[in-house]
Amino acid sequence: MSSTVSHCKNCQRFRSEGVSFHQFPKDRELLKKWLIVVKKDDSFKLTKYKLVSSDHFTTTDFIVVN
Q1: Residue 9, exposed/middle/buried by CB under 10 A (0-12, 13-18, 19+)?
Q2: Which of 4, 27, 55, 56 has the most other CB atoms within 10 Å of its CB?
Q3: Phi, psi at residue 61, to the nearest 5°?
């Protein structure tokens, strides 16, 4: 699987060290925000295989749970 973001070269199979992959959120309001950021419209079909690599987030975007 690879990142859904256009021009992103990250791939789960050959991922760089420190790169993680994230599924789109199920929450509709948060999903809308993600779709805007990754430049996808409402016709974009979500599947469990559509992912966004951590390269498209900042460290403040993550909530670390121990």
Answers
A1: exposed
A2: 4
A3: -80, -15
Give the integer Cα–Cα distance in Å for 15 and 36: 25
For residue 52, the 8-state DSSP code is E
Each residue's pLDDT tens digit in the chain (66 positions)? 556 666 666 665 666 777 888 888 889 898 888 888 888 887 888 888 888 888 888 888 888 787
Amino acid (1-letter code) at residue 27: D
